[in-house]
């Protein structure tokens, strides 16, 4: 009977030990689950931020292309104005030379 009681005590102690280990295991599992949820939330926030940044970058690229086209059109317009002004100066110079020659005769 003493041996049976001793076995029961050992089994009871082992059972209590296993229950403590199981409880600790559940606590660790819950902690890991919470950490995973936090990591997933951070990932979601990072993905949302990446989407916003990509969208903003696309908008900025489109704006830069538009500004480049506007700038190029302005440069072309200035080139045409400069060419017209140079032609006027050349025509005026020819007229001046012709008028000067007729005055010296």
UniProtKB/TrEMBL annotation:
GO biological process, one term: cellular oxidant detoxification
Stretch list, region Disordered: 1-31
Biased composition regions of type Basic and acidic residues, renumbered to the chain: 9-31
InterPro entries the record matches: LSU
Protein name: Uncharacterized protein
